[in-house]
């Protein structure tokens, strides 16, 4: 025991004071030091700073508000120190007796334990081998041989144990990094909630100020009307009182001749005033009330996301057959559980299940650039194939229903255009088409394709998406490296300029929206594996990167089940939240 205590002692000493730990505090790197030693170390070198480097490995540890005192106490280490100190006292006060000598057999006086019984895992003497540990039930070997054998067996375990230690150290580091990232996300999320709440409060205050101003103006206008009405009534009242009093005086005081000479005048005045009716005021002018708005649910700060996206499957390979793609350019959700893929270089649109099972094909004369679906009883699939027309197919049998231009028919041949993108305003099923040549998006009636609006844009609409709640239109500008978030009239509310590792991206590609914000495919250029999928809110603030190291993704959409489907050149990648 004395040897064991001597060996373990150095592991229970503080690396600063070289004495046994006193109130040990543990840093993020898992090194521990006496509280007073750390306080002296911090005060002398890093006073006032928010972090402290480990005196041994130099790794930084963030300090709580109470600095060193607020660090976690290593109670486990304290317990070991106290136990070892107690054992040292016991060893120093008790002398070992001959009977306690572990080399001597306690059963057979004077015999030395020269052997080791492997069956019972204990040292035995010569007599034991023939009395209580005899063969064949017991197997024993010479103690020196046993010591060498089992030392080697322990040594053979060390490599795996060392690997386990390294894995655990890596796990500790990974856990620490994850905690640090979570702390950063907490700060970022709290700020996002506060920003959103501030914005909503500002919107409510603006409405309140506007409404109260309207009430005050209404009060001013109506008070003026009431004042004018009361003034007129007062004048009529005074006139009638005056005439009545004068008439009574004439009757009571004038002589007959004077009365008769004044009678025609007084009679005429009385009749004149008697016939005057007082002006009426509209009783509705006094009505004023407040009806609380029914759209209180529009004030929605959002929700906390406790799950993250990860790829759940990928299907498709390069080729021309079923289950194969040759540059999957665009993707859209069609019927429940199905998607349509613009298989550009194979000159076709492929219909398949969300699991990759082939459902059908729509052959085209040229390669499709974009697809979109109208989810109404008619079930229409829209396709852009490089022509000047939007082609509309029946999703039930994949037949062509109609095609329509994005300019008046008589101007089609005279107008240069390059139709690249499609989106649907789901509330009205309005079709939105992006033209990068004319730098517009056009809106069309779903029943016949009639042009409803032509909206100029600042960013070429290579990809389009529409937020169903606000009808904001998101325009992804491909090689411009930016994305505009516009209102329904084309006014830019926000511009997103994505970055990867602090550097502006070269390409912004596919984009889609849901209630949680905007999902955007971006690329740095150069290598094919620099693609990311970024998540932004509808005000253009970056929220998260849900995938990176991607090959060559283009279009992106939400499936009917809420998964993300991404066109990835020769395959389709599906992402879900876990």
TrEMBL record:
Q: Which residues form the RING-type domain?
A: 14-58
SMART domains recorded? RING
Q: Where is the B box-type domain?
A: 100-143
List UniProt keywords, sorted A-Z. Metal-binding, Repeat, Zinc, Zinc-finger
One annotated GO molecular function is:
zinc ion binding
Under the heading InterPro entries, the entry gives:
6-blade_b-propeller_TolB-like, NHL_repeat, TRIM45/56/19-like, Znf_B-box, Znf_C3HC4_RING-type, Znf_RING, Znf_RING/FYVE/PHD, Znf_RING_CS
The protein's name: Tripartite motif-containing protein 3-like
């Amino acid at each position: 025991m004395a040897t064991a205590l001597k060996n373990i002692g150095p592991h229970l000493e503080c690396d600063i004071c070289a004495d046994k730990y006193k109130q040990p505090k543990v840093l993020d790197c898992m090194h521990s030091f006496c509280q007073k030693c750390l306080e002296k170390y911090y005060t002398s070198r890093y006073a006032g700073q928010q972090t402290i480097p480990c005196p041994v490995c130099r790794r930084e540890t963030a300090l709580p508000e109470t600095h060193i005192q607020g660090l976690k106490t290593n109670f486990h280490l304290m317990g070991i120190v106290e136990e070892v100190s107690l054992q040292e006292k016991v060893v120093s006060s008790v002398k070992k007796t001959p009977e306690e000598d572990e080399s001597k057999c306690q059963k057979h006086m004077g015999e030395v334990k020269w052997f080791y019984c492997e069956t019972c895992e204990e040292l035995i003497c010569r007599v034991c081998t023939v009395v209580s540990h005899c063969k064949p039930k017991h197997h024993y070997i010479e103690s020196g041989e046993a010591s060498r054998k089992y030392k080697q067996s322990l040594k053979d375990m060390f490599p795996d144990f060392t690997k386990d230690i390294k894995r655990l150290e890596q796990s500790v580091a990974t856990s620490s990094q994850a905690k640090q990232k979570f702390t950063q996300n907490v700060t970022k999320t709290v700020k996002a909630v506060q920003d959103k709440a501030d914005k909503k409060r500002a919107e409510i205050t603006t409405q309140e100020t506007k409404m109260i101003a309207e009430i005050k103006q209404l009060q001013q206008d109506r008070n003026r009307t009431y004042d004018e009405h009361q003034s007129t009534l007062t004048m009529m009242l005074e006139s009638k009182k005056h005439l009545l009093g004068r008439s009574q005086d004439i009757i009571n005081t004038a002589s007959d001749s004077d009365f008769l000479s004044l009678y025609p005048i007084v009679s005429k005045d009385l009749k004149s005033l008697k016939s005057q009716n007082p002006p009426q005021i509209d009783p509705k002018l006094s009505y004023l009330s407040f009806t609380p708005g029914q759209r209180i649910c529009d004030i929605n700060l959002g929700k906390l996301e406790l799950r993250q996206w990860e790829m759940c499957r990928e299907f498709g390979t390069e080729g021309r057959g079923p289950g194969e793609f040759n540059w999957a350019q665009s993707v859209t959700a069609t019927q429940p559980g199905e998607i349509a893929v613009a298989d550009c270089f194979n000159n076709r649109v492929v219909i398949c299940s969300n699991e990759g099972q082939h459902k059908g094909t729509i052959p085209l004369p040229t390669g499709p650039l974009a697809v979109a679906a109208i989810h109404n009883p008619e079930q229409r699939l829209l396709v852009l194939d490089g022509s000047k027309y939007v082609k509309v197919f029946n999703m039930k049998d994949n037949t062509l229903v109609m095609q329509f231009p994005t300019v008046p028919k008589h101007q089609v041949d005279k107008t240069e255009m390059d139709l690249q993108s499609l989106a649907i305003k789901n509330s009205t099923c309005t079709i939105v088409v992006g033209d990068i040549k004319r730098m517009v998006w056009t809106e069309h009636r779903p029943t016949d394709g009639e042009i409803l609006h032509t909206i100029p844009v600042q960013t070429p609409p290579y990809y389009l998406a529409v937020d169903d709640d606000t009808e904001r239109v998101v325009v992804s500008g491909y090689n411009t490296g930016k994305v505009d978030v516009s209102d329904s009239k084309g006014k830019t509310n926000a511009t997103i300029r994505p970055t990867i590792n602090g550097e502006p991206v070269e390409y912004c590609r596919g984009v889609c929206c849901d209630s949680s914000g905007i999902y955007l495919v971006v690329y740095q250029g150069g290598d094919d594996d620099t693609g990311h999928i970024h998540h932004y809110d509808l005000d253009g603030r970056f929220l998260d990167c849900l995938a990176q190291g991607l090959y060559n993704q283009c279009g992106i959409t939400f499936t009917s089940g809420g998964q993300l489907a991404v066109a990835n050149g020769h395959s389709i990648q599906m992402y879900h939240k876990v």
